[in-house]
Amino acid sequence: MAQVRLERLRKSFGDNVVVDDLDLTIADQEFLTLVGPSGCGKSTTLRMICGLEKLGSGEVYFDSEPVGYLPANKRDVSMVFQSYALYPHKTVEQNIGFALQMMRVPKSEIGERVRKTAASLGIENLLGRKPRELSGGQRQRVALGRAIVRDAGAYLLDEPLSNLDAQLRGDMRVELKRLHADLARTFIYVTHDQVEAMTMSDRIAVMQGGVLQQCAPPEEIYGKPANMFVAQFMGSPPMNFFTGGLTDVEGRRTFRSPAAVLALTEEASRAAEDFPAGEVVLGIRPEDVILGEPGDADAADSLQGTVFVAEPLGADVLVTVDLGGELIKARVPAPFRVGIDKAVPVRLRADRAHLFAKESGASLFSPSQWAPQPTPIAPASDRPTDS
Ligand SMILES: Nc1ncnc2c1ncn2[C@@H]1O[C@H](COP(=O)(O)OP(=O)(O)OP(=O)(O)O)[C@@H](O)[C@H]1O
Hints:
- This protein is α+β, with helices and mostly antiparallel strands.
- The chain has helices at about 40-50, 90-100, 105-120, 135-150, 165-185, 195-200, 220-225, 230-235, 265-270, and strands spanning about 5-15, 15-25, 30-35, 55-60, 65, 75-80, 155-160, 185-190, 205-210, 210-215, 240-250, 250-255, 260-265, 280-285, 290, 305-310, 315-325, 325-335, 345-350, 355, 365.
- It has a six-stranded mixed beta sheet with strand order 6-7-8-3-9-10, with helices on both faces. It has a six-stranded antiparallel beta sheet with strand order 13-12-11-14-20-21. A five-stranded antiparallel beta sheet has the order 15-19-16-17-18, with no helix packed on it.
- Adenosine-5'-triphosphate binds near residues 13, 36, 39, 43 and 44.
- Its EC number is 3.6.3.-.
């Protein structure tokens, strides 16, 4: 299998439409992540791809072959679930080899493939243990091993890291990304964790309420979000929004709201000529809010805010600032020495400002630092031989 294509995929439970006319093509060897808030239809989509959920309407194609009518065990996919669902009385070796045993693969070959898979996950020394004798991270590796020991066209992963602690999740992100490059197979990954989506994916498909909002490489999702939902969902802390209007001040298009005034760049001003009339929303990411020191020489043309609270993160400090009655977030380099309730000059980077339509939330303008690139696909590499 090279490609997975979803065509007008739709699913309802009663009156509840949970996947709404989803069109999406996942390229051969791509790492595509479906991301979105709880209940947005990610798992249902994945389950329809692998055959655990019947299609409402639409079709799933593996290459050009429609597979909607095929039962799960006849589809060329392997799935990893959030709950590892290991067999408690079987050893790690038996757990990993079970699917091959069911497929009546010869015993000697099973042993060889299980050892190779365990080696690629760094768990060869655990083959004789039972699941209860393993840590959470080790169990997760066994669950992955059980999926990848099978040669499948696509590997489907449903929140496989959500039961792990933060440190282990970070380690496993690295391992999964490496595994994808080594296997050179299509990965479709479901998570509600935007860090997992940003760090591992070739492309991210952001869903809300069963509807695909945007599908693009991580840099584009971050740099050119299609709408306010994507802008807010991807980024931690989320983008700051100000609702206001555009006026001309001394020949410059200028955004004005109760909290903020910002002269737009030439690029944004040119784009603004085409905007429909009405209120717009200015979007500024926390790293694009610059805080000065009280009494800064060049603070005269800054906005005046008040420090609400400062949270040191190590290299950076996350500062919540009261700006004209609105709380906004700034991510500034450490150290930050202005105390709570003290005045602080605030600059919003005009060259990084986004504009959205207030009513629809659709993006009207994003700055063009992000240069479009072809979708990166994992390098092809020699797949471990199965014989
Ligand atoms: N078998 C079912 N019967 C009825 N409703 C269901 C069923 N399975 C899922 N749903 C509903 O469909 C919606 C989408 O569920 P789904 O599990 O796909 O969301 P999700 O985005 O994966 O969420 P989460 O991140 O919480 O797992 C939810 O409102 C859920 O309650």
